[in-house]
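Suppose a classmate hands you a notebook page containing two proteins, each written out with its sequence and a corresponding row of structure tokens. How would you begin to make sense of it? This section walks through that situation. The first entry is reproduced here exactly as it would appear on such a page.
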Amino acid sequence: MAMKAKEAEDTPESSAVSASPMLSHPTFVLQGVVPLPTPLKLKDGDAKDNWRRWKQFWESYQVVSGLNTQPKDYRFATFITSVGHDALDLYDTIQFEPGQDKRDVDIILRVMEDHIMGLVNTTYERFLFNKRDQQPGESFNDYLMTLKGMIRTCEYRVMADELLRDRIICGIKEDMVRKTLLQKRNLTLAMCIDMCRMAEVATKQVKSIAETDTSMVQVVRKHEPDTHSKGYVKKQEQRQVNCNYCGKRHLRGRTLSFKTFRRRQQKIRYYKS
């Protein structure tokens, strides 16, 4: 029995499993499962915004896959594989400082970021930000997300929250909400955002209530007869009878009461006499 147990331990399958790097190093398994970041686009769209988004994906990928714990050459090869043609063209043209390692991914990212950020005209970005108003049909959350994306390229730094608040006040389309915000002392960015969101929700609720009331009125009117239609008037005329009290034609049961009729007759005789 001992010999059989020993032979089972020494089988090729068990030795292969124990020696497999896929099982002894979970990092390699994750790298096979987690997809690489999409290639960086520098020639299409906003280069600075594309770089910022790609860098976020890259840093998250390094943590999830365990790439940040791998050797320098392995990280460099992964970076070159995933960064794309636009970034490779930029990498080939960058002039590194003496002493900088061209195969160190951290140094490459820092140098590329300095180069890409230098391509942005901060004055023009601020001009676009300060001209951006809320568009018709645009929700406040969409408008806020757009402003947050634009202000990142303006480099306002410590003044970013205050200037974002001011842009919201100037750019929202509802004048009543703007008036309410201007009346608030010590208005912070968080307070401004909450008030705008609550105002938008209240407007939608009031509109929904008004639409519900309108639909209920339409349902009631649908069941009411149209007194102005020719068919309704003709039908009413056919139902009229000659009245012995007033001498006129009208619907049955719509005549004057006997007491009222006698009172009117007495008044007529009085004035004739």
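The notebook's second entry, a different protein, reads as follows.
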Amino acid sequence: QNMALAHELNKADNKGPLSEESSGAPFGEIIRDYKPLPNTIWRFGKPNYTRVNKTYFQHRTKVHKEGSLEAVVSKIVKNWEVESHHIADIHQWQTMDIKAFQAAVNGGCPCNAQLMADVGPYNMLLGETKDYSGGSQSFEQSNKTFSATFPEGFAWECLEVFSGPPNVLFKWRHFGPYSGTFTDKNGRQYKGNGELFNLIGLCMAKVNEKLIIETLDIYYNPEDMIKPLVSTMVDKSQSVLGGDEADGKTAGPGGCQSGASCALM
């Protein structure tokens, strides 16, 4: 997600509203207007979106008219990201109906609000791939992994909305300079060359009359997220001849772990 960077978080600063910089206001546009409840505790410390906002405004491909479906969806998703990444207690969430909420990737196993809060959006969305294992990374580890991969921020934009509420189908793009270091599931490290990384997908979001999210059905290829990150190995001596035992075992459709039964988690 277009999350705040892990290395910029201070766990002691875990209450209060987001800064004006995090809203996007200094760039002349409010792209994130999340207002936490008075009792909200920030999971890793209050998120700071200044750096990822800079990447967003510098590299976005769309500027949506205020009040358009695309602008509305963009703000809802950015606010959703604040909660899903940075608030551990689902009872403090406001963008999702936590009783109804389900999320699924590529028609795979749906996960409920509590599971997503436990494993984190990255692990839920990626599952098991050739070079990344969502099942063996904690929530905090996954955030640190991708903050180290995209130190200038990994931004998100809504490209186009195809249908309005209650079933909102939209196309999205994740992007950011690959200027950091990615560590795969075996501990091998790969260095980015600073080129702009792009990932495209679709999402069907069911919302209620208050635009609160009830379900998310996300469609994209998780290998498109990881494969471009493993092209330049830092230490060639880390190469494994013949591959790893699990290299051929990727997820079923979406974030299901290989071999797992597809029941509501």
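A careful reader of the second entry would note: The beta strands are 102-105, 111-112, 155-163, 167-177, 181-183, 189-191, 196-207, 213-219.
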